[in-house]
Amino acid sequence: MLKIAYDPIYAHPLPPGHRFPMLKYELIPAQLLHEGIITAGNLFSPQPVDEVTMLLTHDAGYWQQLRDLTLPPKEQRRIGFPLSAQLVEREVRIAQGTIDGCRYAFDYGIAFNVAGGTHHAGSNWGEGFCMLNDQAIAANYLLANNLAHAILIIDLDVHQGNGTAQIFEDEPRVFTFSMHGDKNFPFRKERSDLDIPLPDGIADEEYLSLLKDNLPGIIDNHQPDFIFYLAGVDVLASDKLGKLALSKEACKARDRFVLEQCRSRNIPVQVSMGGGYSPQIKDIVEAHCNTYRVANDLYF
């Protein structure tokens, strides 16, 4: 069964003056329901992540400032919007949704979080609309509970997973792989275990070739028993922030290749959706839904 973390709070609008395509979090499950790919039984609503699990990844002082809404204004500006209780609630539910997705991935091979991919959040900072790093929190949960012993995080969002790289810089059990725009945000990059910086305007063939040349070897060398996949669709040519030139077809082929690598090796995978900023919301939703369609074809 394809299990998908979704809660109405995912689509919580940001304060006035802060534009962000939150509508996709409602439209993705609605489209999948419309197509009959899922039913309501495929969706689950996560609870907030507990503090003990949270603090396996994030600094206690930073978390307390988020929880108590006392994060300094400068740090709020780095995140990109003013702090609110509902936004913090959203983040802690997203994090738990990714942990729950890991459990379902053990059962079914794959599971999704409609939101997530908050990879700019480091151990003691938030940045780029990310306050808590959902996949890092889930990875540390798996390690702490002996549910996984070697983890691979595949980050194919157009922006480097700088927070993820920082969190796991001294953790040999987690291999971080980021393919991202070289001249895009964040402008101060961290060091992943493998970074592939991409030139502006890279198109389908070259992008897919780089992915196919690198990913199988990473998996074979690291031998992960769990994989996280951040499937951002801000690699599209239509994306107003991405600077790359991928077609929807290539983005779908990217997802198929990644998930085929997981499926063929029987490695469970949790997928968080990451970014997407095309001017037309239909382009964002279609590209994200393609990831679910591919998963449904391969696994179910």
Automatic annotation (TrEMBL):
CDD domains reported in the protein's UniProt record: HDAC_classIV (cd09993)
Ranges of residues in domain Histone deacetylase: 22-290
Biological process, per Gene Ontology: epigenetic regulation of gene expression
Sample GO molecular function, one term: hydrolase activity
UniProtKB keywords: Hydrolase
InterPro entries reported in the protein's UniProt record: HDAC_classIV, HDACs, His_deacetylse_dom, His_deacetylse_dom_sf, Ureohydrolase_dom_sf
Highest taxon of the lineage: Bacteria
Leader sequence residues: none
Pfam families linked: Hist_deacetyl
The keyword Hydrolase is assigned to this record: yes
PANTHER family named among the record's database cross-references: HISTONE DEACETYLASE 12 (PTHR10625:SF19), HISTONE DEACETYLASE HDAC1-RELATED (PTHR10625)
Family note: Belongs to the histone deacetylase family.
Full protein name: Histone deacetylase
Source organism (scientific name): Mucilaginibacter terrigena
